[in-house]
Specification:
The chain has one domain: 3-Layer(aba) Sandwich (Rossmann fold), CATH 3.40.50. The chain is of the alpha/beta class. InterPro entries: AB_hydrolase_3, AB_hydrolase_fold, GDXG_lipolytic_enzyme.
């Protein structure tokens, strides 16, 4: 008999019985808006706070890094030598915009960090492979031109929700020192069986080459965070990615955020002592 039995309060991964679920049930596994009762109020408050933060910091907004309509960066610089968090927004690759998340630069700016927020094209106008390439182009641009705009220190690449998948895919980029993946989706195969695929139209190749759980492990530090009140599919994706990396002895913590849901987890960026601000700081402290 084992000395103890793990009491895991997280519901089991619903994808283990995927074949038994009908289309609406599969969709509910990923529907964060429906899974958080006050999601609309949280999003409205976030957008209002972000509009105010952008208005108060207008000096380096809407800087193009490529030729598409949404391929621009908002920069909140703290000086060319300051560390920088690059934040990739979420929205299942088909909604939201970088401007909606500006308020989450506040805590890092107060802690002396720069923040860069890239926008990217959305499905169905762009395929997921094209979106991934755009994030790479934004990092290329920052490496070449960031210092001209007061952003030149070591980069922690962060992403939330769909943005966490985009960030995880670019952990190996030469401009990136470490990564912070928040509330992400790291295996795309089940997504193809849900309403989310109406616009994405994922191909076999995209699932194989753009799912972090199906790719070789990058040895740079990656902290993987999730809220304790996330949907079970997202909790298990976070745990699975951390387990995969741990099996390859890749550095990085698994960071459950107590009491946080898919939206409120980002509030840990609002203060200089927020849990996610400290997680970013710890990542650079651990880079050798």
């Amino acid at each position: 008999m084992p000395a103890f039995v793990l009491d895991d309060p997280t519901p089991p991964d619903p994808r283990r019985r995927w074949a038994e679920l009908d289309a609406p049930a599969r969709g509910r596994c990923y529907d964060n808006n429906a899974g958080v009762p006050d999601s609309a109020a949280q999003v409205a408050a976030r957008n209002a706070a972000s509009a105010a933060y952008r208005a108060a910091h207008p000096a380096a907004l809407d800087i193009p890094y490529a030729g598409a309509e949404r391929t621009a960066l908002d920069l909140y610089p703290a000086g060319a030598a300051a560390p920088c968090l690059v934040f990739v927004h979420g929205g299942y690759w088909q909604r939201n915009a970088r401007a909606d998340f500006a308020c989450f630069a506040q805590g890092l700016n107060e802690a002396g960090w720069s923040v860069a927020m890239p926008g990217y094209s959305l499905a169905p106008e762009a395929r997921l492979a094209d979106i991934v390439a755009e994030i790479g182009a934004s990092l290329d641009w920052l490496g070449r031109h960031g210092p001209e705009h007061g952003v030149g220190g070591p980069v922690v690449l962060a992403g939330w929700s769909a943005g966490a998948q985009l960030a995880a895919l670019h952990l190996g980029h030469p401009a990136v020192a470490a990564g912070l993946a928040l509330s992400g989706v790291y295996d795309l195969a089940p997504i193809r069986d849900t309403y989310l695929n109406d616009k994405l139209q994922l191909s076999d190749d995209e699932i194989a080459t753009l799912s972090p759980l199906r790719l070789p492990v990058v040895e740079k530090p990656l902290t993987i965070a999730y809220g304790s009140r996330e949907l079970p599919a997202l909790v298990h994706d976070a745990r699975n990615l951390h387990a995969l990396r741990a099996a390859h002895h890749a550095p990085g913590a698994l960071l459950p955020v107590p009491g946080a849901d898919h939206f409120s987890i980002l509030n840990e960026f609002l203060r200089a002592d927020g849990l996610l601000v400290r997680a970013a700081q710890d990542l650079l402290g651990g880079v050798r």
